[in-house]
Design brief:
- The protein has 425 residues and is of the alpha+beta class.
- The chain folds into two domains: 245 residues, 2-Layer Sandwich (BirA Bifunctional Protein, domain 2), CATH 3.30.930; 98 residues, Rossmann fold (3-Layer(aba) Sandwich), CATH 3.40.50.800.
- Helices cover 38% and strands 20% of the residues.
- It is built from 15 helices and 16 strands.
- α1 packs antiparallel against α5, α1 crosses α11 and α5 packs parallel to α9.
- The protein starts with 12 loop residues before the first helix and ends in an 8-residue tail after the last helix.
- The structure holds histidyl-adenosine monophosphate.
Amino acid sequence: MVQAVRGMRDVLPLEARRWQTVEHTVLRVLRAFAYEEIHLPLLEFTELFARGVGEATDIVEKEMYTLADRDGDSLSLRPEGTASCVRALSEHGLLYNQTQRVFYSGPMFRYEKPQKGRYRQFYQIGAEAFGFAGPDIDAELILLAHACWQALGLRDHVRLELNTLGASSARQAYREALVAYLMPRASDLDSDSRRRLQTNPLRILDSKVEKTRALLEEAPRLSEYVDADSQAHFSRLLEMLEEAGVDVRLNPNLVRGLDYYTHTVFEWVTDDLGAQGTVCAGGRYDGLVAQLGGRATPAAGFAMGIDRVVLLHETVHQQQPRAAVDLYVCYSVEALSAAGHFSEAARRELGGLRVRQHMGGGNFKKQLKRADASGARWAALIGENELAANAVTLKDLKSGQQETLSESAALERIRSVDRSHEQER
Ligand code: HAM
């Protein structure tokens, strides 16, 4: 039997049910904030990510799935959505003299070492806002994610870590100071950090290696290099978050793994998932649009790692999500077409109700067993007697009570007792 490719996961029906709840909830919050959906391709020119995410990042250096198109172009499966989003909006002139607030969802691909919460194909829902320079949009994006945690019942299980990187000139000056400090001490660094000293020195700040951490104690601080404008932007953001009642943990070592960030960066982190605890991350990237060839446009956004949010949801809300079926329709051989009509009427009249018609015959006892196993709240039985009386027997599988009713009365009964399916619409 051919197996799945390492790091590419299957989401099987039971997990997919929870997945649906999570995705549905996040998308509902995004729509409540009036963000508009955008669909982006899975494949882009490799150059987009090399220029956008950064040549020296782990993502571009060693994690992209890159292939040659038949005509020799180098294409890559998208490792993230921000660069594509900038490309799409610029290419279609949608950043010119206007603001945009958009969201996207779908799989991303990175050749990382697979482990719990880290996959080679993973799913993000991202939100991006363009054309807003002030800290109010940073606050809105953070509050949007916060509203998602609240709606998912995860609010007490995630915390917000926040930092500012300053303008890119400040970051450049700091980068030089950090390299000047670490270079003479390079032999004391771990090998990963030593390599990063040449390529991406700021990433050394979030090294977890003990001896590297010790060296960093005395290193120059990024905060000392942050320019006054950026500092003011950050202070105002902190005020707004405080007013909104969002707890913040300042993390001066938070630098993020993608090169395009300026000013605000943030991560939502949980302690409930082990090593892969970042469930959502983002920040401001005021230089990216111009860097990719568009007109300078301030921008900010975030992406949630849905695989991780689903894992967290499972850890916190251990009860199974609701069953996949609401009404299970059982029937005897001669009632096949009546059962078909009843199922159809139920789907039509009670929009959102999930109606499964029994397949494979058998007596009512066997069919009711299937109905129970499906998790349905209701079973409808149509046999010889019901057929003669133009009726159905409706069984409430929760209470065990049953009653023979006309088709419309049966539907009315379901409607009056069980409105939960309506929330799904
Ligand atoms: P990122 O930090 O690379 O940022 O990814 C965002 C989130 O995607 C992570 O916090 C994590 O939850 C999830 N994620 C990343 N890699 C994996 C993986 N291998 N397996 C499972 N989940 C993963 C970005 O992608 C930026 N584009 C976010 C952004 C949007 N910044 C501004 N706008």
